[in-house]
Amino acid sequence: METTKKSKVLVIGGTGYIGKFIVQESAKSGHQTFALVREASLSDPVKGKTVKSFKDLGVTILHGDLNDHESLVKAIKQVDVVISTVGRKQLLDQTKIISAIKESGNIKRFLPSEFGTDVDKTVAVEPAKSLVFGAKRQIRRIVEAEGIPYTYVVGNCAAGFYLPSLAQFQPRLTSPPRDKITILGDGNAKVVFNREEDIAAYMIKGLDDPRTLNKTLYVNPPKNTLSMNELVTLWEKKIGKSLEKTHMTEEQVLKNIQVYPVVPVYVILSINHTVFVKGHQTNFTIEPCLGVEASKLYPDVKYTSVDEYLSQFA
Amino acid sequence: METTKKSKVLVIGGTGYIGKFIVQESAKSGHQTFALVREASLSDPVKGKTVKSFKDLGVTILHGDLNDHESLVKAIKQVDVVISTVGRKQLLDQTKIISAIKESGNIKRFLPSEFGTDVDKTVAVEPAKSLVFGAKRQIRRIVEAEGIPYTYVVGNCAAGFYLPSLAQFQPRLTSPPRDKITILGDGNAKVVFNREEDIAAYMIKGLDDPRTLNKTLYVNPPKNTLSMNELVTLWEKKIGKSLEKTHMTEEQVLKNIQVYPVVPVYVILSINHTVFVKGHQTNFTIEPCLGVEASKLYPDVKYTSVDEYLSQFA
After folding, report:
1. B279 and B241 within one domain
2. A78 φ, ψ to 5°?
3. Are residues A285 and A150 in the same domain?
4. Catalytic pick from A96, A136, A205, A278?
5. What is the share, in percent, of chain B residues with pLDDT greater than 70?
6. Residue A91 has what DSSP assignment?
């Protein structure tokens, strides 16, 4: 089923978490591989290193940017297949890739950024509904409307994101728990966990394959399809120990989505470290040449004291 | 100390969380008030309502955008004072406001977006160090280098953000806890909590005041300056009940900043709701006309099973 000549591949977003695996797999499997990289990424210590590793694999680095239409078209004209691995916040910016593919007119296959659950089979709640699933679905519909040949690769759960913590994100554990674990819902829903390298391997296999043209390529290997309860049992067997299980009911999950902060907890916590641990709001004297204190300067303002504020909740 | 004629005020970012309070206070206190609003905000259900409430207060709505230099200059030319209330992610974009103020040449006072701890007195850890404190500090230095008259308003902790949960963010409580509470560090650092309306009142008082020119205006009212331990005691008195206290040591705080997820927990949890509670990865049959399964299509790929993956941690 392999075509005789392997397609030339452009990866957009290649220095990102998942993109790295795709670029590596594409180059290693003998595709002439190009990575579109922003000039700014070269001076970034982490991304600069990634770019160097790409060069060592024979990848051609093209300088460009999603927002630079000319650079996009120029890059796309050199290849047969475009793979987008842009991050969550740039999903809708993929319309710019679609425009450039239309203008170039030479692309045999486009693989938009997916790397998750099938967005056409999912009924999600907010904020994932709009931020993730809605955005990916919108891109799919535009690709189809424009008549661009596509493959949607549904990679399901990336193992490196889910398995080291056994899906314990609050806080996110760096190795699986050995005493207690929280299970969402009844823990019987079947989930698919795939190693990033494997998702990349199937993706690169599929991009020249007529059997995946204008289709969704599901990465659902049977050995990787298991429920959270089965996952926990598997882990318990490995460590020879039973974990204390707490279930978070669906009702509680939905309520927690509302009450968890919109700003990432690690940002809040680093602010709170300066405020609550270090006391940086009060551990200095206001120098009169540089600062003035408001309640002294404007004694006519009847400010609400903390005491009064808290009374509304008691 | 009041000037005879009140300055005309432009608020940039007025439909945001803190901006609303500033626009309202400016208009109510008799300043001719202008709000720069993006056209897109008008069709947003929440922001559209806010804009309507501004109009009811006599605020002049100007259409424009940080990225539209001409619209910025045009807006700035109509006023004496510019207040920025842009959000965390737009802090560095305030260089665009600074350029427009330089070009306009008529601004008597600029109040950049602060609404937190004094960034020149804070030694924060990442990510707040760069994302918040570093960005605000950078803007201060540019304002000073450009010779723009300024006031930095240090509002410290916004009550509406901190007090309803008594700083319990994981998950964020919607009313103060009545059984147990986590305290960062020893709980003795003195913190300042101010109601948003009061921060706005002091800010608007200060913008025409020669005593605040090129100075920092600290909002540190004595009744609102208290330690976390004192805050908890105050709350315990109100509910006539003692809370079970857990201290998170500084070491643990610093470790947690590393392990908390970078993506907001509420986004992760809403994704996990579809995956772990609803089972959307596996609760459908792949229609052959639309999809293909990778491990069946490419049996030569030796994928890593979940079982094998977990072995590395056991």
Report:
1. no
2. -90, -5
3. no
4. A136
5. 99
6. G
How many domains is chain B built from? 2
B164 shares contact with chain A (CB less than 8 Å):
yes
- What pLDDT does residue B314 have? 82
Is residue B147, in this structure, part of any structural domain at all? yes
Q: Is residue A307 part of a domain?
A: yes
Together in a domain, A266 and A212: no
The answer to whether B224 and A303 have CB atoms below 8 angstroms apart is yes
Among the partner-chain residues A191, A217, A280, the one whose CB lies closest to the CB of B122 is: A280
Cβ–Cβ < 8 Å for B282, A192: yes
Q: Which residue has the tokens 């290849």?
A: A79
Please state the pTM of the whole predicted model.
Answer: 0.83
Closest to B18 (Cα-Cα) out of B225, B192, B165, B158: B158
CA end-to-end distance (rounded Å), chain B: 71
Helices H, strands E: what count in chain A?
14, 13
Give the model confidence (pLDDT) of A267-282 as tens digits: 988 989 999 999 999 9
Strand partners, B37: B63
Residue of chain A with shortest Cα separation from B284: A121
Indicate the average pLDDT of chain A: 94
Judgement on whether residues B249 and B266 belong to the same structural domain of the protein = no
The CATH number covering residue A159 comes to 3.40.50.720
Interface test with A, best of B144, B269, B301 (most A CBs within 10 A): B269
In a domain, B243, yes or no: yes
Asked if A185's CB is within 8 angstroms of B274's CB, the reply is: no
Q: Any catalytic annotation for residue A52?
A: no
**For A280, nearest residue in chain B (alpha carbons):** B122
Does the beta carbon of B38 lie under 8 angstroms from any beta carbon of chain A? no
| Structural Rg of chain B based on CA atoms | 25
Complex confidence, ipTM: 0.85
pLDDT of A1: 45
**Whether residues B182 and B95 fall in one domain:** yes
Q: How many degrees, rounded to 5, is the angle at CA A244 between CA A240 and CA A245?
A: 115
What is the domain extent for residue B269? 262-311
Q: What would the pLDDT profile of B80-109 be if each residue is shown by its tens digit?
A: 999 999 999 999 999 999 999 999 999 999
Residue A156 covered by a domain: yes
* Alpha helix positions (H), A182-264: 196-206, 228-239, 250-259
Of A185, A209, A295, the CB nearest to B221: A295
